[in-house]
Amino acid sequence: MDTFRRLIEAIEAEGIAALVSLAETAGSSPRDAGARMVVRPSGGFNGTIGGGELEYRTLNETRAALAEGRGPARRRSIALGPELGQCCGGRVVWRIETFDARDLTELATLRAAEREGPFVVLARLDADGRVERRPGDAAEDGDWREAFGEETTPVYLFGAGHVGRALVMALAPLPFAVRWIDPRPEAFPERAPANVKFVCAPDPPAELTAAPDGALVVAMTHSHPLDLAVVAEGLRQDRFPYVGVIGSATKRARFVSQLRTAGFAEARVAKLVCPIGAPGIAGKEPAVIGAAVAAHLLMARSAS
Predict the structure, then answer these.
(1) What is the pLDDT of residues 64-114, one digit of tens each?
(2) Which residue among 71, 231, 289, 295 is the one 20 to 30 A from 282 at the CA level?
(3) Whole-prediction pTM value?
(4) Which residues lie below 8 Å from residue 89, measured CB to CB, with a gap of 6+?
(5) Which residues make Cβ contacts (< 8 Å) with residue 169, sequence separation at least 6?
């Protein structure tokens, strides 16, 4: 979640907004420390601190804080079992902060840092009990560190057909940065999720030359020869943990044969992922395939 973008949008729309953070966790908890929500006075919110009774009660307290207006940060420690009747045996500490137009300049600075990727700030309570944040590594007594943003895994997606579109939508809320590549400019939709970049490339496989190590490569173009060219380039470079192509076992057998004929070593050929998609998910509808491939990419991300 783009925390500071959401806060700025909420303030501009409704005049005030709240940031809820899990400051500490111990034992079993539904989310780790650093999980956040941005809450509006109208009741809307983005993000989650774990759902269930914990989130329900926290949202109620957050709305009460918003009704009182911009003020000191609120902090509370909750034992999930004894206080909320949850099976989790852990404890969490949440913090609620409220912001209004007076904070927009500071939030814009943090938003600028957020655009550049994950970052860390030093935080402390000021004389009014509000959290102030600053860059730097030299912590002083009373400071704590906060990390914002999430490390994203690059995905090079080739093909803007129906399944490509479904996969893009499935990846939209997930920790991926998608470079969506197709030689046909008319194939792309008018809009795409924020984590997606359109690339109209006359030579799609050449896009992998500048791809970072560790990128995940998925081919689902309108052309089997183009699919083959993409995966051949991905396997040739031997620096991508996932090189997959949409298709059946028959398509895999044909591609494997062609790769061997082209001189690829058996160890490289064995890395080809086809069919793609998490095992056990059946269905040929684009949305089903998109969900299955998204799950497969999450598995690859966790393994890399």
Answers:
(1) 999 999 999 999 988 876 666 666 668 889 999 999 999 999 999 999 999
(2) 231
(3) 0.80
(4) 27, 28, 80, 81
(5) 193, 287, 290
Q: DSSP letters along 251-291, please?
A: HHHHHHHHHHHTT--HHHHTTEE-S-S-TT----SHHHHHH
**φ/ψ (deg, to 5) at 152:** -105, 150
Separation CA 18–CA 10 (nearest Å): 9
Which of 209, 243, 241, 211 has the alpha carbon at shortest distance from 227?
243
CA dist 167 and 179 (Å) reads 12
The CA-to-CA distance between both ends of the chain, in Å, stands at 22
Backbone torsions φ then ψ of 279, nearest 5 degrees: -60, 150
For the segment 145-179, what is each residue's pLDDT rounded down to a tens digit?
Answer: 999 988 899 999 999 999 999 999 999 999 999 99
Which helix (H) or strand (E) segment holds residue 123: the answer is strand 119-125
Could you list the residue range(s) of the whole structural domain that residue 178 is in?
A: 153-303
| Integer Cα distance of 59 and 39 in angstroms | 8
- 45, 171: one domain: no
With 0-12 / 13-18 / 19 or more C-beta atoms within 10 angstroms meaning exposed / middle / buried, residue 197 is exposed
Q: What is the CATH number of the domain that holds 175?
A: 3.40.50.720
Nearest to 99 by CA among 72, 126, 129: 72
Q: Are residues 101 and 242 in the same domain?
A: no
Q: Does residue 172 sit in the same domain as residue 235?
A: yes
